[in-house]
Amino acid sequence: MKRPVKYFVVDAFTESAFKGNQAAVCFLEEDHEKDDSWLQSLAAEFELPLTCFLIPITGSDCLHPRRFHLRWFTSKAEMDICGHGTLASAHTLFLNGLVGSSETVEFSTNSGILTAKRVDDCEAKGSFLIEVNFPVITTCEYSSNDFSMFSKALNGATIVDVRGTTKDKLVFQPLKGATKSTSTDQIMVVLSSWESVAELQPRTDEIMKCPGKVMIVTAAAPEGSTYDFCSRLFAPKLGLSEDSACGSAHCSLAHYWSLKMNKCDFIAYTASRRSGELKVHYDKEKQRVLLTGKAVTVMNGCVLV
């Protein structure tokens, strides 16, 4: 008889159901691992922006946080790193008492060890936020001054800057303590105003022709706003026409806006249809980005196949 796989559907980077970014969080036991084709098939079955798979790692002692293997899949591909999936996974673990009394959990991922910390919400009794600790993604000048392909993809929006992300500069701490480097493949397009980001109607077919696996579109907030900047992320090459609230995008957004605004702490807004918000801290010394936000569980169940 096949063993059921427990899952939770979580909305991340929001305190309201049906907003923020969706993720399915699935629990596998150490002796119940599935092959990659099964994991990818289940992610396609959920057809959510992301499906996370958690497997507990035994052997942790009382001096160290609980540790889990964590993998992230879109409906079409496995991801190397994902902010909202990590936050959704941590939220599920903390909410269901699966890390005991610990306020911190560690995830062993394709991008090394990532940590998440539970933070009490001073403004709402009984509520809590989660802070996830990610590597910064440094931005660099785009290799060409010809922005015409991006303008076409973004329906003629006024572009003030295009940035790439630095290759082979992301340093992680793998499970056994050695260092390794990896690369990312993002294009960041800066528009002239908050409204142009919020009202943007991109052309998916043209985004598919642009370089990079994902396109981040961003702009500074207007004077007097609660927020510092807004953003949206489009990734049709990964099976996501638009990611509603992408945490990992803020690893490069933090670097870019820190240079522009000469500050390290931000309140960021994702201007998608579902919207979302998070606090962002860029630690220049350690080259880390701390992303803090809330999450809401909207359903749970079991996979029976």
Question: How do the strands and helices of this protein lay out in sequence?
Answer:
Layout lengths: L4 E8 L8 E7 L8 H11 L4 E6 L9 E8 L4 E2 L3 H13 L8 E6 L2 E9 L7 E8 L3 E3 L6 H6 L5 E7 L4 E3 L7 E3 L3 E6 L2 H5 L5 H4 L6 E7 L8 E7 L4 E4 L5 H13 L3 E6 L5 E8 L4 E6 L1 E9 L2
Parallel strand pairs: 2-3, 4-6, 13-14, 15-17
Antiparallel strand pairs: 1-2, 1-20, 3-4, 4-5, 6-7, 7-8, 8-19, 9-10, 10-13, 11-12, 14-15, 15-16, 17-18, 18-19
Question: What this model shows, in words?
Answer:
The chain is an alpha+beta fold and 305 residues long. The protein has two domains: 5-134 and 293-303, Diaminopimelate Epimerase, Chain A, domain 1; 139-288, Diaminopimelate Epimerase, Chain A, domain 1, CATH 3.10.310.10. 17% of the residues lie in helices and 40% in strands. The chain contains six helices and 20 strands. The strands form two sheets. The chain has an 18-stranded mixed beta sheet that branches. Strand 4 and strand 5 form a beta hairpin. The radius of gyration is 19 Å and the shape is globular. Residues 167-184 have low confidence and may be disordered.
